[in-house]
Design a protein that fits this description.
single chain; 5-stranded mixed beta sheet; 6-stranded antiparallel beta sheet; Transcription Regulator spoIIAA; 2 domains
Amino acid sequence: METAIGVFDSPERAKEAVRELLVSKVPQDSIIFLTRSGTDAEVVGKELSAGTVTGVTGVSVGAIAASMLLVPGIGGIVFGLGLGAATLLGLIGAESRKAEQAQGKAAEDAEFFRGVLKEGHSLIVVRTESTDTARAACGILDRLGFSIQERSTTKAQTTVRQIGDIAVVDMVGRITFGEGNVMLRDTIRDLLAKGNKQILLNLQGVNYVDSAGIGEMVRSHATVRNQGGQLKLCNLTNLISDLLQKTKLHSVFDIHADEATAIQSVRSASSASAGS
């Protein structure tokens, strides 16, 4: 499954993005729009008027019935348009919630989406099994959302170093659709399969991330957390730091200025967990 994430502070740009996604034949059931503004939901809902939405309470918003979702930790209502909006925010059915809690799991990316919404931004999330659909979605979300516009020509590479029980992943180049995002996904999957749950992502050599790269970073963090581990970021370049600031993801990723500080944070958290 490929995930592309666009963050918007303008309903008109979100509306334009949805329009272009539909023109590019991205299926409506692959598109989710989340916002705290009923007005923004109405604007975007008109573009998705033929779509189906899910949620707790259905209300008419323009030409589409949007979900009004009461989301813990945000302090207000979120309007969700598209299949899976409630699940994306962790608002799953009671039985499913009990099953996840029994397994020690949280909704995969819920905390990230909640964090961005809490900051007042809106989100368009495209999830699809089709590489062609994901590629088209990335191009649109990169151009109309907050992604960095400067592109790197350096090919993506990863190397893994072990510092005690901490796996340090050094990434170079770009984290983009079909290249760095797949490399990051495979690296995290391999580390978890080998029992490495304390992971430090060193982004010193990364100078471009697209909407698919953001989606993969979010999913990687959630995957590690769901397996009882930690994923921290360090050595962000100015471009990547600016991207996370603009998208408000700086408040939901665990970011450190340098490797030494990040390693100390991992060890402190591990010690506190062991002592509790």
